[in-house]
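Researcher: We plan to redesign the surface later, but first we want a full-length starting point. Tokens attached.
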């Protein structure tokens, strides 16, 4: 355990590195560890969020998953909305899209009145409908998006089509019952 003065020096020197190289993943990794040692939670979470953004940008999926988990384990209840949306989009490129759908739903629940929350509801609805064969869940999400306080604007036709497609998928899933 370094004493406080050494930690402050380390922070200052890492901030100099980041001034020259703002995309330094290693510097943010070290910085978030030092903030954790200093028990400076807000700065620790901020450094983790910046690290996650860089990992997403460089398509380092494994590191991004770990950093998002570290963020939550450190008490970060919700990622910044735009960053969270980028993280969800990266998860969609994985073979199992159910994790992406879960993250989209969590984002929508965390930011119900924001544009990112609305986009997350629509994206989760699309994944449930097109890739996870969960039309009932898709319908709930598209209906929630339709009722969302977030401004819909250009998205309303997409939402209405999602609702119609989910209803169509649901009706084709029901088994016809013969007479008596």
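Model: Full-length starting sequence:
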């Amino acid at each position: 355990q370094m004493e406080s003065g050494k930690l402050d020096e380390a922070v200052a020197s890492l901030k100099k590195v980041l001034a020259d190289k703002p995309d330094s993943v290693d510097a943010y990794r070290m910085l978030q560890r030092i903030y954790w040692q200093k028990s400076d939670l807000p700065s620790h979470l901020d450094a983790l969020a910046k690290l996650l953004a860089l990992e997403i940008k460089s398509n380092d999926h494994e590191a991004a998953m770990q950093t998002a988990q570290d963020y939550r384990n450190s008490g970060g209840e919700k990622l910044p909305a735009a960053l969270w949306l980028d993280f969800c989009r990266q998860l969609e490129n994985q073979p199992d899209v159910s994790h992406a759908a879960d993250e989209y739903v969590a984002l929508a629940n965390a930011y119900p009145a924001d544009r990112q929350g609305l986009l997350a509801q629509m994206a989760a609805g699309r994944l449930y409908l097109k890739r996870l064969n969960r039309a009932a869940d898709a319908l709930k999400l598209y209906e929630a998006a339709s009722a969302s306080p977030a401004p819909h604007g250009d998205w309303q036709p997409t939402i209405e089509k999602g609702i119609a497609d989910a209803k169509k998928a649901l009706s084709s899933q029901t088994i016809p019952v013969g007479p008596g």
